[in-house]
């Protein structure tokens, strides 16, 4: 029991250091978080490797990716190899959170704090898109939105995992908070998460709310359209430099680049954005090349298993975050991936779901 409490404290330090690294942009905080996560993973490997299939394939995956990271070590200025350490640390925290059943401490509690802070900044201090752009060092309001949504997804997962009721009020507050954050993908994802929770709670209520929402929208279409185009980035339409970045990246790939990854500075538009491809999958390919196919296959198997076991709410959350990763680089091999790993690597963690006492029915309806 004392050892469990000690490592819960280490895991909470991981979350704290991860948040501090975002707020202040100091590498030392990021490195401290990685150290905490790696320490936890080594503890888990020592104490639980024999009882879980996690060891074999994931350790093999990490080794393969680490080898491929050497090809882009110079062009990424060491980030490709350090990101492997980030992956290991997040994996350790995720594994421990399930084994020790402490998802409340690591998933729900930080969500309450971050959502509360967001509401205070928005409602009390009047923060809008310009102000939220300055909250996190090195990240725009889109990054802030991505972090808030990651913890919202982690909160939903934890409540389902622990068999607890998910608060529609909190998810509505997340949706409301997404508007001053301005981003199109953030608003769309917050709305989607709200719909997932609504369906999880009750398909009948979801249908009634959906019907009422459609009627209200039709009767107030001009007002809604005016607000959306005036107060959000939907005024820019659906066009984005991200699609052009993808096309230029694909055009720049040759045989060797496909195998080992492509230097992002070779793509003109990405180079203009400080080598930020605004797409996690492009970034991972540039770092690790074709080795990412193994990771994608493992994720696909987990998604299929969630579908077969009719854990549709969890499946929807995983797919939403993978879609969101198409628009930013803050997910996948980031410090907050521990919130997503129980779903993306569900194939390995299914044992803990079966022993958690949570009930799984279509869309989670009980």
UniProtKB/TrEMBL annotation:
<feature type="transmembrane region" description="Helical">
    <location>
        <begin position="287"/>
        <end position="308"/>
    </location>
</feature>
<keyword id="KW-0812">Transmembrane</keyword>
<feature type="transmembrane region" description="Helical">
    <location>
        <begin position="142"/>
        <end position="161"/>
    </location>
</feature>
<feature type="transmembrane region" description="Helical">
    <location>
        <begin position="57"/>
        <end position="74"/>
    </location>
</feature>
<feature type="transmembrane region" description="Helical">
    <location>
        <begin position="329"/>
        <end position="349"/>
    </location>
</feature>
<feature type="transmembrane region" description="Helical">
    <location>
        <begin position="245"/>
        <end position="267"/>
    </location>
</feature>
<keyword id="KW-1133">Transmembrane helix</keyword>
<protein>
    <recommendedName>
        <fullName>O-antigen ligase domain-containing protein</fullName>
    </recommendedName>
</protein>
<feature type="transmembrane region" description="Helical">
    <location>
        <begin position="5"/>
        <end position="22"/>
    </location>
</feature>
<keyword id="KW-0472">Membrane</keyword>
<feature type="transmembrane region" description="Helical">
    <location>
        <begin position="111"/>
        <end position="130"/>
    </location>
</feature>
<feature type="transmembrane region" description="Helical">
    <location>
        <begin position="203"/>
        <end position="224"/>
    </location>
</feature>
<feature type="transmembrane region" description="Helical">
    <location>
        <begin position="28"/>
        <end position="45"/>
    </location>
</feature>
<feature type="transmembrane region" description="Helical">
    <location>
        <begin position="168"/>
        <end position="197"/>
    </location>
</feature>
<feature type="transmembrane region" description="Helical">
    <location>
        <begin position="80"/>
        <end position="99"/>
    </location>
</feature>
């Amino acid at each position: 029991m004392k050892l469990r409490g000690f490592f819960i404290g280490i895991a909470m330090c991981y979350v704290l250091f991860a948040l501090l690294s975002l707020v202040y942009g100091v590498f030392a905080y990021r490195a401290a978080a990685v150290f905490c996560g790696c320490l936890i993973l080594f503890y888990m490997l020592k104490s639980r490797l024999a009882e879980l299939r996690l060891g074999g394939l994931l350790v093999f995956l990490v080794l393969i990716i680490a080898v491929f990271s050497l090809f882009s070590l110079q062009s990424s200025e060491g980030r490709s190899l350090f990101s492997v350490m980030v992956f290991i640390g997040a994996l350790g925290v995720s594994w421990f959170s399930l084994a020790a059943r402490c998802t409340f401490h690591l998933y729900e509690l930080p969500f309450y704090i971050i959502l509360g802070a967001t509401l205070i900044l928005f409602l009390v201090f009047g923060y809008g898109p310009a102000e939220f752009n300055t909250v996190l060092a090195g990240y725009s309001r889109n990054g802030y939105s991505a972090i808030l949504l990651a913890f919202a997804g982690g909160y939903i997962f934890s409540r389902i995992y622990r068999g607890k009721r998910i608060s529609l009020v909190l998810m509505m507050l997340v949706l409301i908070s997404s508007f001053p954050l301005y981003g199109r993908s953030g608003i769309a994802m917050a709305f989607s998460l709200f719909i997932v929770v609504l369906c999880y709670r009750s398909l009948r209520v979801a249908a009634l709310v959906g019907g009422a929402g459609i009627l209200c929208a039709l009767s107030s279409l001009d007002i809604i359209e005016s607000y959306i185009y005036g107060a959000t980035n939907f005024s820019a339409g659906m066009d984005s430099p991200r699609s052009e970045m993808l096309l230029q990246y694909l055009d720049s790939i040759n045989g060797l680049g496909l195998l080992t990854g492509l230097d992002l500075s070779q793509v003109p538009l990405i180079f203009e954005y400080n080598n930020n491809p605004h797409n996690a999958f492009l970034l991972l390919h540039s770092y690790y090349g074709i080795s990412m196919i193994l990771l994608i296959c493992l994720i696909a198997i987990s998604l299929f298993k969630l579908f077969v076991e009719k854990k549709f709410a969890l499946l929807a959350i995983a797919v939403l975050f993978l879609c969101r990763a198409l628009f930013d680089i803050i997910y996948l091999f980031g410090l907050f991936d521990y919130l997503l790993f129980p779903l993306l690597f569900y194939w390995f963690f299914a044992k803990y779901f079966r022993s958690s006492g949570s009930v799984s029915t279509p869309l989670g309806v009980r």
